[in-house]
Amino acid sequence: MATVVAKTGVKKEKGYLYFLDKNGNVSRAKMSRAGRSKGKAKKQVVAKAGVKKESGYLYFIDKKGNVARAKMARGRKAGRKKKAKKKAKKRAVKKRKAAKRKPAKRKARKKSPAKKAAATRARKKAVRKKAAKKGARTRAKKKAVRKKAAKKGARTKAKKKAVRKRAGKKAAATRKRKKR
Predict the structure, then answer these.
(1) What is d(CA 41, CA 20) in angstroms, rounded to the nearest whole number?
(2) Residue 68 · residue 8 · CB < 8 Å
(3) pLDDT tens by residue, 25-73
(4) What gap in Å lies between CA 180 and CA 169, rounded to an integer?
(5) Cα gap 42→16, rounded to integer Å
(6) Predicted TM-score of the model (pTM)
């Protein structure tokens, strides 16, 4: 698939990206890693190859360190779309068939009497705990209501007393007027 254009035999180091620069030379740049400062990495020319690039090809440095090129996929050939659609339909049909299969039924295992008893005890304990919580909440609510009512009652008693006092003063004043 790929053809070697120039034999450079570059030894690749970890942490660097090797590529063919604008002049057709093999260059490298430090790859971005955590902690490295942002910005463009400086390019270093590793080997001078002087490769003239042609359009329609992808140029890269292969595993052996040589400059290689591969033809780029441009457009689609006639009939490929239809084949792709047929394949997609076949896959969909297979998936539907696979989905129709029912899972195997499992036999229900019987619990031992000891396990059953433990489970029921745990359930009952949870119910009791929940009921106790609910009871505490209702008791607290009732207490708050009683406290509020007592406050309100004290207020109304004080108001009534004040009204009686005022009424008494008025009555005494009218009595004095009548005597004169």
Answers:
(1) 15
(2) no
(3) 999 999 888 777 777 888 999 999 989 999 999 999 999 999 999 999 8
(4) 17
(5) 11
(6) 0.41
